[in-house]
Give the backbone structure.
Amino acid sequence: MRIRLIISILYLILGIMSVYTSVMIFFVPMFTVPLVKFHLGSKLTQEYIFLDFTIGLLMYFLSNTLIAPIIYITLIIMPAYSIIRAQEKKLVNNPSLILVTGTIIWGGLLLQGQLLVRYGYSYYEEYKIMIEQFLKPIKEDPNYLIFHQGIEELFISLYPSTLFMSALLMGLLAVMVNRRRKQLRLVMDQLLSFRLSKGILLLALVAIVMLTMNEIQYATEVGANLLFIIFILFYISGLFGIISYVTKLSLSTTTKLVCIVLMVLLLPVVPILPLLYGFFDTIFNFRRVELVI
């Protein structure tokens, strides 16, 4: 308990010193490492959970800001808990763990984004500026003015699901940094041999139905974001599925690596290919894999 208390006090000091708000947000989940490493040999009990949330409360009173404790709880403590709970099992479903951890981080980012507005900063406004810069060449062409307005509104409405992509990457980073070197091979093997549950097809149907509910406030926006998240998952599943075929070819490791790099570079030319493969693989399970998320 003494070592755990020291770790928690260090988290408190980092929060008071505004380290969490100073570090690039993408790397914050790396702070989960001390907590996860400690619980490799110690079960996560209610006493430890109470300690962590007490530290979050102290962080709020001592730093006089909600941002640091929110980052601490939603981007460090909760993702760490998901990894700790998973590693208590005999066999860890790493793709599922990455999805769960990423979803937790996503919720934290959305909450943090709302709180930051009170301090004069907004992820949403920064995202809008980025979209405006990205679409600037189209805006300057009068022939595409109406098209530009429509596509800009669409991209801006997809802000939550776009943030989900960043959260998934952060979830992947959090899981990877908490794995030993010999376990990283298992993580990669599982990423190359998983498929999505067929239940996601029902979720996609719900999203499509929501898109038609124009009379209900926010229904179409929620449906669009949900559908985009599902497309992201299909795309990721399809991408890893295609890469898995390359890894099984009778080629040298270097040649396989070159093929994978070339394939990833060519994906922007045919971006729908991984999406379609992920969709049909979910239905037919072409690779006959047993790992499902």
Summary: The chain is about 75% helix and 0% strand. Residues 1-191 form one domain.
